[in-house]
Specification:
Length: about 180
């Protein structure tokens, strides 16, 4: 179904995929570039453990979907979808405390990753490696565990508190002590 220029997943018999009663992780995907949003959706749709509940091209619309659908994970780039950047992560965290945040970005700077994780994101995935990393990052975030793309995590402390989950280790492509 298309509404407000956004694609919503219509439910069938039983609980809709990605919500209570279903084992898959419900996700709201927010990306302002339509072609990239389609590619990211395709990556997530190939994973049986992940279900995209709604897509949005801006953060305000994504937050309406988050409030209505209550997904386990919100995927977005705070520097593209909101002028305040990292403040957007803090606002999402305050407005939707039960929804985990995975940041998608092209910026592999240590400062951006650190700020996003400290603001409450549990994942930091680079868009150019999302095809191989995104499903894992979503599943980990849904379990309250952190993930950072290896190119970024190489510049972060090996063990650190992530956002509001002080006991959650940073997970990279390698197992950490």
């Amino acid at each position: 179904m298309i509404r407000d220029g956004l694609r919503l997943v219509a439910g069938g018999a039983g609980p809709p995929k990605g919500v209570a009663g279903d084992a898959s992780v419900g996700v709201v995907l927010a990306e302002n570039h339509a072609s990239l949003r389609r590619s990211l959706r395709s990556v997530l749709d190939r994973d049986d453990g992940v279900s995209v509940l709604a897509e949005a091209r801006d953060l305000a619309t994504a937050m309406r979907h988050v409030r209505r659908l209550r997904p386990r994970v919100l995927l977005f780039d705070p520097w593209q979808l909101d002028e305040s950047g990292i403040e957007a992560v803090r606002r999402v965290r305050e407005q939707a405390p039960s929804t985990e945040i995975v940041v998608l970005t092209m910026d592999d700077s240590r400062a951006r990753a650190t700020h996003a994780l400290e603001a409450g994101a549990l994942g930091f995935v680079l868009k150019d490696t999302a095809d191989s990393e995104l499903p894992e990052a979503v599943r980990l975030a849904a379990r309250g565990e952190g993930y950072a793309s290896p190119r970024v995590s190489a510049h972060l402390p090996r063990a650190r508190a992530l956002g509001r989950r002080a006991a959650a280790p940073l997970i990279t492509s390698e197992v950490l002590p």
